[in-house]
Amino acid sequence: MSTAPVLHREPSHRDDFTIDQNWSSYSDEEHAIWRLLFERQHGILIGRACDEFLSGLVGLGIAADGIPDFRRLSDVLMRTTGWQIVAVPGLVPDAIFFEHLANRRFPSTCFIRTRAQLDYLQEPDVFHDIYGHVPLLMNPVFADYMQAYGQGGLKASGQEALHYLARLYWYTVEFGLIATPAGLRIYGSGILSSKGESIFSLEDASPNRLGFDLLRVMQTNYRIDDYQESYFTIDSFGQLFDATRPDFTPYYATLKQRPEYEPGSVLAGDRVLHRGTGRYHTLKRA
Known about the structure:
Layout: H1 28-45, H2 51-60, H3 70-80, E1 84-87, H4 94-102, E2 105-108, H5 126-133, H6 140-155, H7 162-174, E3 177-180, E4 183-186, H8 189-192, H9 195-203, E5 208-211, H10 214-218, E6 230-234, H11 237-244, H12 249-255, E7 271-274, E8 279-282
Parallel strand pairs: 1-2, 3-6, 5-6
Antiparallel strand pairs: 3-4, 7-8
């Protein structure tokens, strides 16, 4: 469990788990930690993060000067893609999470990690949520994907399928890579907010980089205690949104008949990306 101080959590929350951010109560030290994280991460991500993320940072005015005020960010988001940010005390129940996303509300925690936790924090903090997630909500296609994901989550209630959706979120929103004309780039927030994984995901020879396939992703387990053994690579945000359009109900029935795979598995039929050439090759069946 995280030992992060929960300085901005309130003793109670509303029925939808929202609270007030209380931006004026952040200390100088908390703003200083934001600046440290921002400056360190921003230097790493130039040439590694996708253009849509970097443009979103600029468009929102997210900068090194301190923890942003959610109200100001929401004003810009609402005008651009119809989204807003709501403050929550921490991780929220699945139904609440899906309800927020389906209504174009992104739930963000308020607390920020300590200096001792700069490189790893198990529970998402405000830097992960705001710096890592929110800039891509300025992109209309990705913003629509997030809403569609929330709507899909609401439909999945009672179908014993939430673990499939969790894997989809993990391998796209949190740890996704995207192929661009300039090369492989990062769009997953779990990578974008991590110094070590921003470098590892693109430059280390050990992880698999596999072409995105919806059912393959939903069959693949993941780890939360180390860098990823496999990353799934999309060709565009349009591809991601199109994969989420259909009703997943028939997919769940199919998936229940299929095996689950370990995070590092590479299967016959997988499209494997070679870092050297930037091209995929499909593993042939024996």
